[in-house]
Design brief:
Helix content is 61%, strand content 12%. With 288 residues, the chain is α+β, with helices and mostly antiparallel strands. It has three domains: 88 residues, 2-Layer Sandwich (Ribosomal Protein S5, domain 2); 33 residues, no CATH class; 134 residues, Up-down Bundle (Butyryl-CoA Dehydrogenase, subunit A, domain 3). Strands 1-2-4-3 form a four-stranded mixed beta sheet, with helices on one face.
Length: 288
């Protein structure tokens, strides 16, 4: 499976009095550049989260943002500390025995007393376990997103490989005729200049020049590199760097093809090849 380096995932979870959310964003980068943003309550988990994410992702600029928000104060009104209320009631009754004229505590006063409305709390161990669970879910969603994007990029690269093969197949049969026509034209010009193209020395020079403009080797290497691109795409995994190297090799062969060209159609094919390869190179930058 080919993975893109571009992806996004977001998951949330509610605990008593606390809401947790994890966001993962990734874009293309030469190496793995990981940024982890945590609330103060979770600072101690940063190194563990970094190891967890680095074990899953190989390349890309990745941002992991964990947010923790407390529930609204009104949500705590249902959590009343009964033992605290009993203590207040006993204390109020004791005060009234000593001072009968003192008014008893009202319900509103009891509710406002510190500790009566108990805010729900989550044990640190449970919080850590839930964060790890959410990060694992987010990583799964992120990888699924990157896999979908990678499949689209792989399909595009395969289409461009087919287009490169079309260009190679179009010009390859013309090479012998192009060389023969060019050598005939060059021989005619030599005869016009009063030289004999059949002289041994000129024959040697023409043979050397014919070897210099021969592009059969470049066409063969283009076909070989295209086959290797397809093999890498089929193998999957972290193929971005290998494909980037192959794009450089393809571009080099296309350039050489253009520099050796002695025919307008061959020059046009070289230009088309360079456009296709550049489009592929831009997309390869997004692969892991």
């Amino acid at each position: 499976m080919i993975l893109s380096m571009t992806g996004f995932a977001a998951v949330t979870s509610d605990l008593p009095g606390v809401s947790l959310s994890v966001e993962l964003r990734s874009v293309n980068h030469r190496y793995l550049d990981l940024q982890v943003r945590l609330p103060d309550e979770l600072r101690g988990f940063e190194s563990v989260l970094r190891e967890r994410i680095a074990a899953e992702l190989k390349r890309g600029k990745v941002e992991c943002r964990v947010s923790l928000s407390r529930s609204a104060p009104g949500a705590a009104t249902l959590a009343v500390d009964g033992s605290r209320v009993e203590q207040l009631a006993a204390a109020s009754a004791a005060v009234q025995r000593h001072a009968p004229d003192v008014a008893p505590l009202t319900v509103a006063e009891i509710l406002r007393w510190p500790g009566v409305l108990a805010e729900p709390t989550v044990a640190p161990e449970e919080l850590a376990a839930r964060v790890h669970e959410l990060v694992g879910t987010a990583l799964g969603d992120l990888n699924a997103s990157r896999a979908r994007e990678g499949a689209k990029l792989a399909a595009m690269l395969d289409e461009h490989c087919a287009a490169i093969e079309v260009q190679v197949e179009r010009v390859a049969p013309r090479i012998p005729a192009v060389h023969a026509a060019f050598l005939d034209k060059l021989g005619a010009r030599l005869r016009e200049a009063g030289l004999d193209p059949d002289q041994e020395r000129l024959k040697q020079e023409l043979a050397l020049f014919a070897a210099k403009i021969d592009v059969a080797e470049e066409l063969s290497r283009l076909a070989t590199h295209v086959a290797e691109v397809r093999r890498v795409l089929k193998a999957g995994g972290s193929a971005g760097k290998r494909l980037d190297f192959l794009m450089q090799e393809l571009h080099r062969e296309a350039n050489t093809l253009g520099s050796k060209s002695v025919d307008a159609e061959l020059s046009q094919a070289s230009l088309e090849l360079k456009v296709l390869i550049e489009q592929m190179r831009e997309q390869v930058q997004n692969l892991e």
